[in-house]
TrEMBL record, chains A, B:
<dbReference type="Pfam" id="PF00291">
    <property type="entry name" value="PALP"/>
</dbReference>
<dbReference type="GO" id="GO:0030378">
    <property type="term" value="F:serine racemase activity"/>
</dbReference>
<comment type="similarity">
    <text>Belongs to the serine/threonine dehydratase family.</text>
</comment>
<keyword id="KW-0663">Pyridoxal phosphate</keyword>
<dbReference type="InterPro" id="IPR036052">
    <property type="entry name" value="TrpB-like_PALP_sf"/>
</dbReference>
<protein>
    <submittedName>
        <fullName>Pyridoxal-5'-phosphate-dependent protein beta subunit</fullName>
    </submittedName>
</protein>
<dbReference type="GO" id="GO:0000287">
    <property type="term" value="F:magnesium ion binding"/>
</dbReference>
<dbReference type="GO" id="GO:0070179">
    <property type="term" value="P:D-serine biosynthetic process"/>
</dbReference>
<dbReference type="GO" id="GO:0030170">
    <property type="term" value="F:pyridoxal phosphate binding"/>
</dbReference>
<dbReference type="InterPro" id="IPR001926">
    <property type="entry name" value="TrpB-like_PALP"/>
</dbReference>
<feature type="domain" description="Tryptophan synthase beta chain-like PALP">
    <location>
        <begin position="23"/>
        <end position="312"/>
    </location>
</feature>
<keyword id="KW-0456">Lyase</keyword>
<dbReference type="GO" id="GO:0018114">
    <property type="term" value="F:threonine racemase activity"/>
</dbReference>
<dbReference type="GO" id="GO:0005524">
    <property type="term" value="F:ATP binding"/>
</dbReference>
<dbReference type="GO" id="GO:0003941">
    <property type="term" value="F:L-serine ammonia-lyase activity"/>
</dbReference>
<keyword id="KW-0460">Magnesium</keyword>
<dbReference type="InterPro" id="IPR000634">
    <property type="entry name" value="Ser/Thr_deHydtase_PyrdxlP-BS"/>
</dbReference>
Amino acid sequence: MKTDLPDAADVRAAAARIAGVAVRTPLLEFPALNARTGGRVFVKPEVLQRTGSFKFRGACNRLSQLSSAEAPGGIVAWSSGNHAQGVAAAAALRGLAACIVMPSDAPQLKVARTRGFGAEIVFYDRLKENREEIGRGLAAARGAIIVPPYDDPDIIAGQGTAALEIAEDASRLGVGLDAVLVPAGGGGLAAGTALAIGALLPDAKVYCVEPAQFDDHAQSLASGARIENPSGGHSICDALMAPLPGEVTFAINGPRLAGGLSVTDGEVEAAMRFAFEEMKLVVEPGGAVALAALLSGKHDARGAAVAIILSGGNVDAALFSRVLSAG
Amino acid sequence: MKTDLPDAADVRAAAARIAGVAVRTPLLEFPALNARTGGRVFVKPEVLQRTGSFKFRGACNRLSQLSSAEAPGGIVAWSSGNHAQGVAAAAALRGLAACIVMPSDAPQLKVARTRGFGAEIVFYDRLKENREEIGRGLAAARGAIIVPPYDDPDIIAGQGTAALEIAEDASRLGVGLDAVLVPAGGGGLAAGTALAIGALLPDAKVYCVEPAQFDDHAQSLASGARIENPSGGHSICDALMAPLPGEVTFAINGPRLAGGLSVTDGEVEAAMRFAFEEMKLVVEPGGAVALAALLSGKHDARGAAVAIILSGGNVDAALFSRVLSAG
């Protein structure tokens, strides 16, 4: 796959492919956030995307190129819950069966919504079992096609369409962005962003943001090689717990990202509360890390124009309430 | 004042006046909401507006025409909390002092945010005292200018800019709207909407939506004269508890609105949960009534194109959590 890295033209092709099916989310500016950071912050709310996260973009781009003849046994995917919903919704639109391997401790809302899009769910124990092995076994038995969560050129190109829209809207506003901050799990959104921003806004630096104990991108970018997270880490960000950067994604991100930032659970919760109070947006923990990097001062936005992606909003009501009451 | 009713040209002038200060909120479409209602629903999320509600539009339009020489004693207003924030924020931007008369049982978040914009707050007992009397007394003593919450041509014109943007964006999308649903308390947003939609999309019907026990607009529209709500009514919608339609607003709304709908607290709470789960938007009770009218089937959107305004998102975390957990 390394020889087949996607480029900005693939992101543009993905945008044409998903137009009218994916939501073109707006680029928002909040006076309260500008005042708080001392810069101009442009917010890309992928919480408003179909299925509640950017993941629908990549899944839609991948599945729209499949015919049911190519996938007689449907689709198999593994995911903590957002890619699950993206694949399930995109498969339903194509009339394809979807089977998703999800951790048994996935947020209830993500499980319920994935099932709501018509997918079959197979649970696994995140600490004891290997989801890729389970998924590959299921796919082989069914004659199904695997749609990986990030290490796939079509998935990366699809995720990049969010950043393509950021670049288009910023240009329309006459704003030259200094930086773009995006959450990173396996690095698919970061890679797609790096491709789109690199082509359209080459002066803007792209940073990825991770949970403190899952900062494999930050470590890998600093060392130049893919480094795995130590085992036993914990984070409230269920969507960002990939063990290490993807092979394909890191081939793109390594030479292109300006660096990796990391934020604590406390900083993430504060960002979720800020989004509730000042932005009236529901953001899940993993979706709030870029906002957390700004609010915590890990990235200094003073005097700068910065875009951030709020990547998802699929959070259980109970956790959301707990976070609000902890403020 | 009846001889000086605002018109669509005043809404356009207001839009020019508040441009770059108020947020131009997007017009959003949610596949999940379309699927649920059987129509195409266009959502105007004024929860994303500066101060978290549409009220900033009217306040900004009114105050941007005032000089500090005209208001040596600043501004006085009365409000349950959203007009309070709108006036406080607009006054701060103009360097004017603001004093707001608020009910002692106003949501804590609204009180805190109004104070956060630098306003002085005077509390009154909603059941025993008259807020207008208190406000007029304060204004007379201070040499302050009163900015009424709805019965004012500049306020109405300012609120109408939200609907002007709906009409512009719908036209850009090539969509002919069949109906526009807006929340009504005193009727300022409805009146501004009626003016803007009447001029730009004359085929679209404008409906106002109210809490069940505060359906004074529905009653007044049906009878042709302003009717006051019976006393003792209760509603979760703190923002929509005006006793009767405004004199100026009803002079506009009476001949222009297609009718009034009403929704129960339970329907409002269900709409707030839908907005949390499927739209990832934080909507306060009063801001959710138009959505509630659609989801409850009070307005049938099947096969139609309908725009709704989510008018505000200033809800206490404790109430929001309670609503989520009641689902």
